[in-house]
Design goal:
Strand order of the largest sheet: 2-3-4-5
Strand content: 15-25%
Low-confidence stretches: none
Radius of gyration: 14 Å
Number of strands: 6
Helix content: 25-40%
Largest sheet: 4 strands, parallel
Mean pLDDT: 91
Shape: globular
Distance between the termini: 13 Å
């Protein structure tokens, strides 16, 4: 099944994350390419915190979706980092999320090309050996 994440949902999610992070002393905001870039830019403006090219100590690392954890786990050992995703397909443990989703749900974000939706899903599942 496919869920289309809207710009309205995105804006509400940015507000929620910004509110959760406004008291943190962040060294910067890093968006995991490609999915986290839109979120990182929006949060950078909302929180008035610089956008950074690589994760640093005490930074906020954001991504669009947490599915297998392969991507965010690469940054887990950086001191003092905070993690936020728009959608998580697992109950958060060391990361935070705005929305929980079913594992089998395919999410299409508003900045993605809807014409490539099936190809992107198939490629993603193939790389991770998922059905």
């Amino acid at each position: 099944m496919t869920k289309y994440f809207t710009w309205g949902e995105f804006d509400k999610s940015v507000d929620y994350i910004a509110n959760q992070c406004k008291k943190l002393k962040l060294s910067g905001i890093y968006g995991v390419p490609r999915g986290g870039l839109c979120l990182a830019v929006a949060l950078s403006h909302k929180l008035n915190v610089k956008l950074i090219e690589k994760p640093l100590k005490s930074s906020l690392i954001v991504d669009d979706v947490y599915e297998t954890g392969m991507t965010l786990s690469n940054f887990k050992n950086i001191e003092g980092v905070n993690f936020f995703v728009l959608v998580s397909k697992k109950k958060p443990i060391w990361w935070k999320t705005v929305n929980l989703s079913l594992k089998e749900e395919w999410i299409v974000f508003p900045w993605e090309n809807k014409e490539n939706e099936l190809k992107d899903e198939k490629e993603y599942k193939s790389k991770r050996r998922l059905k």
